[in-house]
């Protein structure tokens, strides 16, 4: 589904990713964990083409998207839930969802919105409320719902648990599990390594711009190095 | 509380003295070739001292004073009422709009020529403000050089009529399109910029256009401007006493009425009115279309908008181009109304006033912007009696506005979009 081959990314002259290779297969949940500043977000942004990789290749469903403009990448069956939710706070819940299906027909969007409301009954209740007035958890649901509106085959989530209460985090992760059942491939980037790895089929550990470890989720959870570094011993 | 404010109040009083004392306290008197500095009259000295003391008192008790002002909102019995249901509100708004337009159509026949002239200017500002509202209010791109597009529209018409004798009606779309083209051209380099940086570049662009017009003497006539811009015609009927162009007839002869200078003024007013209404409706449509929503999305959160596959380039360029187009429209009408234009009409202050209209009206809100355009254009005229203090009054009104209603006269209300399943 998504394949990164020896990707290097620079911010100006500083190299942030030193040759990252990873693969997310169809129907999988893959987690990427790493400390602050390891380059997790950079890696995601590189997939989205902002900034573009300086060398190496990014393939989406076999198609080379390394040099495509961001707007084109985001319209080719992939969608992202950005870090910090980033809902349109002045727009209502419904309008936010509508923006997610910007390039779809009205009928598709109608179905899409109904589907999102099924997944998140909470959003239905808040249909006409401004997104900025909702709680963090609700906003995160909205961000996921919005990303679903474009009917993606693959969804990237950047730190969906950021700043949320444990109970809400649990709920969000349940939803992510549900996404897989709907046939959406999930690439999850998390600091909350414990939960991310429990859910994931496979996991990657990113450290200062390099992939350090790569294994199944459960193996990584059991790995003493990972436990020491990311799971608090 | 008072003790806490004391230092600040004292400081403010000193600042007032520092500013007022040299400016008001001395008079330069020319005696022959020499200039001597005289102290002002005792009255001025006392006035400056009193002013400083008032500033001191105000700052000392400002919490209480401003708190009291905030309480004024409670005096308004309408403040806390339930909002009307949407359908009722929309219907009421439509009726109100219809009545307003009808009044606006017939009103000029009953008032003086000067009022109609002023009303035409108001309508031009409404067009400008509605256009800028797209760029600033909806797309959130701070444009300080908007007057440049206005100038492009005006000069396009002036030059076309001057060199090729093109009439108002031909020049109107050309003026709009030329301005739109300039909007597009400006759009490209500023795409990467945001906020302050964007403001500075657009400010520079506005100045470039003005200075270009001022210095390109061979084409634009430089500071002398361009005169003799023809008035618009009504199906080949001219509004002058005598027909200037062959093949045209004159309005008063065709209808067999006595010649009156008012005809032309009213005609121009009606043109401006129709164009302003077209502008308002066109932009209203655009706001409800996907492109309008994409402007808002980009304003709300650029990263999120891009993550949904919106092209930043396309969205920003469309906002710039469409905003500029309506400024070009307004410019053409302005050139025709004045009959003479020079770079002096397109200084930065104009940009600032248009921006003030948008902010005062409430960013993104069309009705608010229209009301503010009326207020901002008419207020200085009404305050003309106060002569030199009129800009002061204008400024004070703006400051008070920002204190009481920072969200603008009529802040933008979200329209609820209802999706209907196709059956």
Automatic annotation (TrEMBL), chain A:
<dbReference type="InterPro" id="IPR052156">
    <property type="entry name" value="BCAA_Transport_ATP-bd_LivF"/>
</dbReference>
<keyword id="KW-0547">Nucleotide-binding</keyword>
<keyword id="KW-0067">ATP-binding</keyword>
<dbReference type="InterPro" id="IPR017871">
    <property type="entry name" value="ABC_transporter-like_CS"/>
</dbReference>
<dbReference type="InterPro" id="IPR027417">
    <property type="entry name" value="P-loop_NTPase"/>
</dbReference>
<keyword id="KW-0813">Transport</keyword>
<protein>
    <recommendedName>
        <fullName>High-affinity branched-chain amino acid transport ATP-binding protein</fullName>
    </recommendedName>
</protein>
<dbReference type="GO" id="GO:0005524">
    <property type="term" value="F:ATP binding"/>
</dbReference>
<dbReference type="InterPro" id="IPR030660">
    <property type="entry name" value="ABC_branched_ATPase_LivF/BraG"/>
</dbReference>
<feature type="domain" description="ABC transporter">
    <location>
        <begin position="2"/>
        <end position="233"/>
    </location>
</feature>
<dbReference type="InterPro" id="IPR003439">
    <property type="entry name" value="ABC_transporter-like_ATP-bd"/>
</dbReference>
<dbReference type="Pfam" id="PF00005">
    <property type="entry name" value="ABC_tran"/>
</dbReference>
<dbReference type="InterPro" id="IPR003593">
    <property type="entry name" value="AAA+_ATPase"/>
</dbReference>
<keyword id="KW-0029">Amino-acid transport</keyword>
<comment type="similarity">
    <text>Belongs to the ABC transporter superfamily.</text>
</comment>
TrEMBL record, chain B:
<protein>
    <submittedName>
        <fullName>High-affinity branched-chain amino acid ABC transporter permease LivM</fullName>
    </submittedName>
</protein>
<feature type="transmembrane region" description="Helical">
    <location>
        <begin position="92"/>
        <end position="110"/>
    </location>
</feature>
<keyword id="KW-0812">Transmembrane</keyword>
<keyword id="KW-0472">Membrane</keyword>
<feature type="transmembrane region" description="Helical">
    <location>
        <begin position="391"/>
        <end position="410"/>
    </location>
</feature>
<feature type="transmembrane region" description="Helical">
    <location>
        <begin position="147"/>
        <end position="164"/>
    </location>
</feature>
<dbReference type="InterPro" id="IPR001851">
    <property type="entry name" value="ABC_transp_permease"/>
</dbReference>
<keyword id="KW-1003">Cell membrane</keyword>
<feature type="transmembrane region" description="Helical">
    <location>
        <begin position="265"/>
        <end position="283"/>
    </location>
</feature>
<dbReference type="InterPro" id="IPR021807">
    <property type="entry name" value="LivHM_N"/>
</dbReference>
<dbReference type="Pfam" id="PF02653">
    <property type="entry name" value="BPD_transp_2"/>
</dbReference>
<feature type="transmembrane region" description="Helical">
    <location>
        <begin position="170"/>
        <end position="191"/>
    </location>
</feature>
<dbReference type="Pfam" id="PF11862">
    <property type="entry name" value="DUF3382"/>
</dbReference>
<feature type="transmembrane region" description="Helical">
    <location>
        <begin position="9"/>
        <end position="30"/>
    </location>
</feature>
<feature type="transmembrane region" description="Helical">
    <location>
        <begin position="317"/>
        <end position="335"/>
    </location>
</feature>
<dbReference type="InterPro" id="IPR043428">
    <property type="entry name" value="LivM-like"/>
</dbReference>
<feature type="domain" description="High-affinity branched-chain amino acid transport system permease LivHM N-terminal">
    <location>
        <begin position="5"/>
        <end position="107"/>
    </location>
</feature>
<feature type="transmembrane region" description="Helical">
    <location>
        <begin position="122"/>
        <end position="142"/>
    </location>
</feature>
<keyword id="KW-1133">Transmembrane helix</keyword>
<feature type="transmembrane region" description="Helical">
    <location>
        <begin position="42"/>
        <end position="61"/>
    </location>
</feature>
<feature type="transmembrane region" description="Helical">
    <location>
        <begin position="347"/>
        <end position="379"/>
    </location>
</feature>
């Amino acid at each position: 589904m998504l394949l990164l081959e020896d990707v290097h990314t620079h911010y100006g002259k500083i190299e942030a990713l030193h040759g990252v290779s990873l693969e997310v297969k169809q129907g999988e949940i893959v987690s990427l964990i790493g400390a602050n500043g390891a380059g997790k977000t950079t890696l995601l942004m590189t997939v989205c083409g902002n900034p573009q990789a300086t060398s190496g290749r990014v393939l989406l469903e076999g198609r080379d998207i390394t040099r495509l403009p961001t707007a084109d990448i985001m319209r080719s069956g992939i969608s992202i839930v950005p870090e910090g939710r980033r809902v349109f706070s002045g727009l209502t819940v419904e309008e936010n969802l509508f923006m997610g299906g910007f390039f779809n027909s009205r009928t598709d969007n109608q179905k899409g919105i109904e589907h999102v409301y099924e997944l998140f009954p909470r959003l239905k209740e808040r249909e006409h409320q401004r997104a900025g007035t909702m709680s963090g958890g609700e906003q995160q649901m909205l961000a996921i719902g919005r990303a679903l509106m474009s009917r993606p085959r693959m969804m990237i989530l950047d730190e969906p648990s950021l700043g949320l209460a444990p109970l809400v985090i649990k709920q969000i992760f349940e939803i992510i599990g549900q996404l897989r059942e709907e046939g959406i491939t999930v690439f999850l980037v998390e600091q909350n390594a414990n939960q991310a790895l429990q859910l994931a089929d496979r996991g990657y550990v990113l450290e200062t711009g390099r992939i350090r470890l790569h294994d199944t989720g459960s193996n990584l959870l059991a790995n003493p190095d990972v436990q020491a570094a990311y799971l608090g011993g | 509380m008072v003790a806490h404010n004391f230092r600040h109040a004292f400081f403010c009083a000193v600042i007032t003295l520092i500013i007022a004392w040299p400016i008001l306290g001395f008079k330069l008197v020319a005696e022959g070739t020499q200039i001597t500095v005289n102290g002002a009259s005792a009255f001025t000295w006392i006035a400056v001292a009193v002013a400083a003391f008032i500033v001191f008192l105000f700052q000392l008790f400002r919490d209480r004073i401003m708190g009291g002002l905030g309480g004024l909102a409670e005096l308004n019995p309408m403040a806390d009422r339930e909002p009307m249901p949407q359908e009722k509100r929309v219907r009421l708004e439509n009726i109100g709009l219809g009545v307003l337009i009808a009044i606006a159509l017939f009103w000029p026949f009953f008032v003086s020529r000067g009022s109609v002239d002023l009303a035409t200017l108001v309508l031009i500002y409404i067009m400008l403000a509605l256009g800028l509202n797209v760029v600033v209010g909806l797309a959130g791109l701070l444009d300080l050089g908007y007057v440049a597009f206005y100038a492009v529209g005006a000069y396009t018409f002036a030059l076309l009529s001057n060199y090729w004798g093109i009439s108002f009606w031909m020049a109107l779309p050309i003026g709009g399109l030329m301005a739109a083209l300039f909007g597009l051209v400006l759009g490209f380099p500023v795409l990467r910029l945001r906020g302050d940086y964007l403001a500075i570049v657009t400010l520079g662009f506005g100045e470039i256009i003005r200075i270009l017009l001022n210095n390109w003497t061979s084409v634009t006539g430089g500071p002398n401007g361009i005169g003799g811009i023809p008035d618009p015609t009504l199906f080949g009927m001219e509004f002058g006493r005598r027909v200037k162009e062959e093949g045209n007839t004159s309005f008063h002869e065709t209808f067999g009425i006595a010649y009156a200078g008012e005809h032309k003024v009213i005609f121009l007013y009606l043109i401006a009115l129709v164009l302003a209404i077209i502008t308002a409706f066109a932009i209203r449509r655009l706001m409800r279309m996907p492109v309008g929503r994409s402007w808002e999305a980009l304003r709300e959160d650029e990263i999120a908008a891009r993550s949904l596959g919106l092209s930043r380039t396309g969205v920003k360029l469309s906002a710039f181009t469409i905003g500029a187009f309506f400024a070009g429209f307004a410019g053409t009408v302005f050139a025709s109304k004045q009959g003479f234009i020079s770079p002096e009409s397109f200084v930065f202050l104009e940009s600032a006033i248009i921006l003030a209209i948008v902010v005062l009206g409430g960013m993104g809100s069309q009705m608010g912007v229209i009301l503010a355009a009326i207020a901002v254009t008419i207020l200085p005229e009404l305050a003309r009696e106060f002569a030199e203090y009129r800009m002061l009054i204008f400024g004070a009104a703006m400051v008070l506005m920002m204190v009481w209603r920072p969200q603008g006269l009529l802040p933008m209300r979200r329209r609820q979009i209802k999706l209907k399943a196709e059956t």
